[in-house]
Structures are given as structure tokens and as C-alpha cells.
Amino acid sequence: MKNFKKQFPLLEQYTYLNAAASGLLSEALLDFRQEHDLDFLIGGSLFREQRNEVFLLARKAVGGLFGCAPNLVALTPNFSLCFNLLMAGIDPSKKVLLLKNDYPAVNWTVTSRGFDVCYAEINEDLEKNIAEAVAKERPDIFAFSLVQYIDGIKMDQEFLKQLKSQYPALLLFADGTQYCGTESFDFSTSALDVLGASAYKWLNAGYGNGFFLFKDHMQELFTSENLEVKELQSRNKPYHGSFIGKFEPGHLDTLNFGSLKVAVDLIKQVGMEEIETRIKDLSKLAKQKLSEKGMLENSVVNRKQHSSIFNIKGDEKLFQKFSGSRIICSQRGDGIRVSFNYFNTEADLDQLLKQIN
């Protein structure tokens, strides 16, 4: 499958460098949604009786892509909702390490609940800063984004494994919203205890769906007494009374989680290895070209590895110049954020660079 513009029609009209803000609607996803709503139209509650199969298939698809048993995959409308439920079930006396200026949905969820909080700086020495903070503060939990949403600084997975080896009792809770779908990842062999993500960005699954992956030992932290939503579980849900059921209060949406399954299937069809190769090659080239033009901060330039998200130096005038040239990107922090997904090409990068000259 090489003709990505055919699967994502918007690419025929725009240079789309905004996956970090929102993924695209694919032809495959549109076909599924139209068929889904037609089936609902003519089936009503008869159609809804098949919903548990939809959710099971979504769990299997997500678990298969990221290396997690389906019974430890929770389906959630977004990262923020499930992370709030997760932290609501954690003993508030625990000490939590955060990254300064990390994504608000991560940090606010922790700080608003009164946990004892400590911080590490986000810069070119990110991993060193974390190691020093853990050694000094001895937190019980480290909650963080795998890729930073403003400038794309990416956590070193090998460092996390070393950290976990040195501090096996330290729980690692990660937000993968800006990461999942960009490279191959096996949750089962990772250092993470929990990984959550909204799927509307790099997975191109549309809005209203996401997932959380849990290591098996996390079940021991959640008793029926310390997660208040337990009574909201519908008695006829297959996960009623289970660990995963605690994170799925109320009804789930067949349209959105069916969309998640279709999006994962499309990724498998393209091939995760090809996606990873395309993104890494384009990211490496973009970093080189943007660095040569002096458009990147040293905290990014000096990193050995980086994501495909870049915050380039630019003001409102440059942003409007991009917009006038049909380049879609976002203003974030003090600059302009551009991001490259597997459907982007060197021609897209060239178009961006042409406007910077």
C-alpha cells in the first residue's frame, strides 16, 4: 500500500504537517462509519446487541499491535478520562515525579489530587534529570509523556528499562498519545506499568476513542474499595466486576471503538515497520534541514534521538505564510509546531523549507 494520498484525500489539497494536533480521516474509516450507521439505522437495538463483539475485536486489535493481553486493554473515550480514573484509585499518600511543562492532562490530574509531587526538567539532558530526581526524591510513581507535545522531545525507552531495573518498585505511568502509532512497541517487554493514549492523532482513528494498557500486577493496586466508579458498571457488561471494568463506566460507543479497530487494521495493512522507517527517515532529514536553518532549540538539536514533532522558531507572520501556502501546522509554545506522519513525503518537507527561505 504505497498510495497514501488515495487513503487520505486531504493530502491532495494540503501539505499536512499537523498529526500532532489531529490525525486524518481515512477512506477505510469513512467506509466503516457509513456502514455502521446504516446498520444502526435499520437495526436499532438489534444492532446494539452485537456491541460486545465490537469491543472485544477492538481490544484484540489494540493488544495485538502493542503487545498486551486483551483482558488488560481498557477502552476509553480519551486519555484524560481514564488517567483521572487511574489516579483516583491510587493511594493519595504516594509521591509522584512529573516533568515540568509536560502535557497538562498528565500534570494537572496528579497535582489537583494533592499528591506529594516532585519534578524533573525537560531539556537535552532529560534522562539525566529524571535519574537524578528519582535518586534524590525516591518517588513511588513517575507519570510522563513518552513524546513531548510542544517540541517533540522523546523519552529513551532503554533508559526507562535501566531505571526500572534500578528501582523495580517505581511505577511508570506513560501517556503515549504523541507516540503510539509512530514506531513498533511491545508493551509486554517495556518498562512501563501503564500506557494510555488517545487515538485521534498518530493512529488516525478519529475522535472519541483511546485505550489503556496495564501490566498484570497493576490489578493488585485496585481493590473494590478504592475506585468509586465500581457501582457504575452495567451488570450485563462482560467486564462487569473485573479490573478493566473499573475503567469503563457506562456504555461504550460502537462507532468510535469500531473506528479504533479499523484504524489499527489499516496500520497493520501498511505495516508498522514501514511506518516506523518512513517516519524516522523523514524526521532525521527534517531535523538536519531545520537545524541548518537555525530553526530549532538546542534542547532538540543536541538530542541523539527525536520524534517527528518539531517546534520551529517563528511568529504569527510566518504562521500565516504557511497557511497561505496551504501548509497545515499549529502554533504551540513560543513557536510553530510541525509534525510528520508516515503519509508525509520529502516533498512536504521541501514545501515547508521553501516558505522559510
UniProtKB/TrEMBL annotation:
Residues 76-321 form the Aminotransferase class V domain. InterPro entries: Aminotrans_V_dom, PyrdxlP-dep_Trfase, PyrdxlP-dep_Trfase_major, PyrdxlP-dep_Trfase_small. Keywords: Aminotransferase, Pyridoxal phosphate, Transferase. The keyword Lipid biosynthesis does not apply. One of its GO terms (molecular function) is transaminase activity. Coiled coil: none annotated. This is Aminotransferase class V-fold PLP-dependent enzyme. It comes from Salinimicrobium oceani.
